[in-house]
TrEMBL record:
SUPFAM superfamilies: Glyoxalase/Bleomycin resistance protein/Dihydroxybiphenyl dioxygenase. It comes from the Bacteria. This is Lactoylglutathione lyase.
Length: 116
């Protein structure tokens, strides 16, 4: 089997607010339907859905690999007017990470991987 991509479906507590948040983060949005949007940044894509389940949203974790964690942190820290939270850069055994909780409670591990 050959694979080109894998896309996750992220829930939203407030669909329009989540759309605005991910655009503020730098993702480009295109509409797939009234209840589904596609977000792209570089070669990474995901779906945002007009669907919310608290237990699912708060247990969803994603890892976004970046080449420069300092630049990613500055991007996250500059976002204003959205319901989200994040922590400063942390050193983990696998690399440097910014933990970011999105508007529905989804947890992003924004990671600059450690050189092997």
């Amino acid at each position: 089997m050959d694979v080109d991509d894998i896309r996750v479906f992220i829930p939203s507590k407030n669909y329009e607010a989540s759309q605005a948040f991910y655009q503020a983060l730098g993702f480009r949005m295109s509409k797939a339907s009234n209840d589904l949007s596609i977000f792209e940044l570089g070669k990474s894509t995901f779906f945002l859905q007009r669907y919310y389940d608290k237990a699912f949203a708060e247990n969803l974790m994603l890892q976004l690999i970046v080449p420069d964690i300092e630049k990613a942190y500055r991007t996250v820290a500059a976002i204003e007017g959205h319901d989200f939270r994040f922590e400063p850069i942390k050193n983990e055994p696998w690399g440097r990470v910014v933990y970011l909780w999105g508007p529905a409670g989804e947890l992003w591990h924004i990671t600059e991987l450690q050189a092997r």
